Amino acid sequence: MATEDELSARTHEIYLYLVKADSSRGPRDVMHDLQLSSPAVAFRGLQKLLDLGLVGKDAYGRYTIKEKVGFKGFFWVGKNLFHRLLLFGFFFLGLLIPQCVVLYLRWMAQQSLEAYIVSSIITAFAMSIFFFEGMQLQRNVSKIIK
Q: For the range 67-76, what are the long-range contacts, defined as Cβ-Cβ under 8 Å and sequence gap of 24 or more?
């Protein structure tokens, strides 16, 4: 089983490209779409993925993903790779929504709001930090995947 440490940056980029691809791809397709310097660079990356058992090769020399692997700090949703900080941001958003509903209901009933306002601000702050940091890291993945 391949680990993240076994994949170089270029091989990682080729792997993510193949996951997003709708059909099998050859070395020249990879070279062109990822703007690599030569088909040999693409071939070396594809060969490394083949040796690790992550891709398969058909009779025409085209490669397809055989197995999706996880990467440290990321999770898959379909063919999309997301940074885990975004997951934490959505967790805090899920906490913030009911807090706002309770805050609104208490306001309508003219009850004390101080504790609910403080907890809602803290939750909103945590959510904002996770979303901001997650989006910063997600941009790096989006540049590779296109």
A: 68/19, 69/1, 69/2, 69/4, 71/4, 71/12, 72/4, 73/137, 74/141
Q: Please calculate the CA angle 131-81-67 and round it to the nearest 5 degrees.
A: 160
**Structure-block tokens of residue 43:** 């071939």
The rounded distance, in Å, linking the Cα atoms of 13 and 44 is 13
SS3 36: coil
Other residues' Cβ atoms within 10 Å of the Cβ of residue 136: 11
Please say whether the beta carbons of 50 and 19 come within 8 A: no
Residue range 3-58, pLDDT digits in tens: 455 567 788 888 888 888 878 888 888 888 888 888 888 889 999 999 988 898 88
Give the span between the Cα atoms of 52 and 100, in whole angstroms: 49
Q: Which residues contact 18 (CB under 8 A, 6 or more apart)?
A: 25, 30, 49, 55, 63, 64, 65
Residue 57 structure tokens: 């090769």
